[in-house]
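Async update (no meeting this week)

Hi team, since we skipped the sync, here's where things stand on the single-chain job. The sequence we agreed to prioritize is pasted below, unchanged from the tracker. I ran it this morning and attached the output directly underneath so nobody has to dig for it. Comments welcome in thread, and please keep replies under the output.
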Amino acid sequence: MELLTIKHQDFEMIVECAKFDDIWYKAKSNIGEECLHSTYSWSEGVSSVILSNHIGEEITIENSQQAPAIFFDNTDYPIWVEFKNYVKKAKFGSTLQSENEKFTFRRQILAGFLNYGNEVGRSEIQLMYQVGAETRSFVFSFEVLSTKLNYHEHWKAIIEDIEQEYRMLSLDYMRRTFHGFSPDASGETPEIIWWSVFANEQKKFIKACKNIIDRPRHRLHGKETYKRADKLTFVPSCIENELAEHRQDSSHLYRVEERVRTNDTQENRFLKFALGQITDKYAVLKKRIEAVKNASDVMKDDMQATLATLKHLQRNPFFRTVGNYKGMNQESLVLQKATGYSQVYRTWSLLRRSYSLNDGIYRLQTKDIATLYEIWCFIEVSHIVKEKLHLSDEDIDHKNRMEMNGLFTWDLGKGEHSRILFKKDNVELAELVYNPKNTDKGNSDIGMKDLVVRTVPQKPDIVLQLTKNDLQEGMKMTYLFDAKYRIDGKDKNGVDVPPEDAINQMHRYRDAIYYKDYQSNTLKKEVIGGYILFPGDGNPTDVAVSKFRKTIDEVNIGAFPLRPKDQHNRQLLEQFVEQLITTKSHETISKVIPQKGTFVEVGNRVLIGLVTNSSRKGYLQSFKDGNATLYYTGSHFPTTIALQNLHYFMPYFKGEGICDVYEIIRVRTITSKEVKQTDGEENSNDLRLAFELRYFRKQYANIQPINTSKMINYTFIDTTFEELYQIVMMDKGIVQGNKHERMREKE
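Output:
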């Protein structure tokens, strides 16, 4: 289908697209037809521009006029340019060499294709061709829109949210699309901004420098000189007596001061300084940009020509008569208003200012929309976690940072370099990590502690670890979120559906990422659930009952639609994260689907027993060596404790405390005579209980004292892991704070 026909005095250009009607209806369904418009503009020489819309209607458009959009992301656009017979050596003039290589010129036809991938924003088609000895160029400008998000609204919201958290993280270079940006009152000017601003100003700056050199501003300067009497054009009063005294001596020289014009002015000194600074900076950045493999020959030639011109201006003899710049004592009207000087001063001021991604006249390139969406989702999840934990900014420990990506733009740090810790009263509640890469080599700078992958590396976008203390101190529950800038159509209720391969990827993550217990040298399952975040839409009521949402309750794998300014569907994710935070560990683990043929019971009751060297109370042989298998009680065991409900045992050393957890394998009766621990008692056949134990884990990093007032007969405590914090004599401020918080929740 022919979408666009441009008739120019030197050529005719046709832009095509297969199945454009499907693309249009897809975009219309996702973001609405009223948002599918673009502003088209072009350079001189065009006689007509005819656009064909999605139903084949032909529309003649004017320069800088809005019309239905025809360029969308991830779409192929074959382009044919048929030149007149007198045109020679035509080529595509992109800054990217890979773009230029897609076009070939043969038999007066320049042909190729464009696909903007995930890059949205304003773009240009530039043609360069030869007519005789003259090199001509043509530029056609338009907007590339997203089929999934509203470029005019959603993209701006994503950029604003990212810039608020990480200033200038959105920037990128060597992209095919660009966006407007404008001066800002605060902040710094990164090198990418400097380069982008000067790219818009360099032609005007060079022209202004040439104009000044040709017609510089002068000033009169007093200069001492010695002249004979016949050479004096004016006789100052100070030499009248000397002139009378030597009137007979025609060779006598008189010292006089005359006014001469000089180029050594403050304004010309500033020009010399500004030109030198800009030339040096341009040379450094040019060298770095040329190292980019994808930089085109067209761009390199243009940069070389600009640098050569700047250096040639620096070597002009004019600057030999100009001194070094030492600053301005006061504002100069010449720099602000004089022809040429004002442009140089304006360029210099622009290069020193800071900028923001607001609509403006300057061009700036940003990361592709898929990467921006991924970063934005990470920020959104962090905001939701903070909100649901009821934390303030002071409770958030940002250990994440931006890192240079090799040129002069930034990426968000990955793995250990992107951690956000959520704390309350110095107690860790949650941790959020961006883009960790887990491998079979264990933890690395871009991985996560204690997480390993024994097969191929896995790299989820967002990892949320919630810290729970009801089963074990500092136990982390791991959930994965993956941001996908894709939509796989709609279901019968008109709800956008996430891509199938993305859902499959979450199954792979959950199966591939393990927890490495270095103490027991075993692998354990780590990931509880995985969820896709995608820019979908739909009625929240329908989304709540969609298949991809219901599967979360069934198998803990699914998806959530998340896009800017969609508060209703965002609430579904908010409610889910709140549920993850409030659910107890044993409830979460009990819902994990067990392997066929196995039975999983998550025990929660724990028996704390006093350990001594006396058989009257309790005995645990070789406990401190970690090899204990049996715990013997004294001759009396409380009848109030239900043995069938006990799952775990924690030994309490008198005067020290508790630390490790043992799993109760079996409980049986045994006589003191059998274990030879009568300790002087006459009746050596009295019965006591023997607990067969297996080491399970460390509950605390260090031995913790306990409140012994809760002990039955000063020997046993029958409790649960949730209640363990009330028994352990921890920091009273934490316990009291938690108590007040629970009271507020009840109110």
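Quick observations from my side:
The first strand starts at residue 2 and ends at 8.
The chain has five domains: 2-147, 190-217+265-352, 219-262, 375-590, 605-743.
Reply here if anything looks off.
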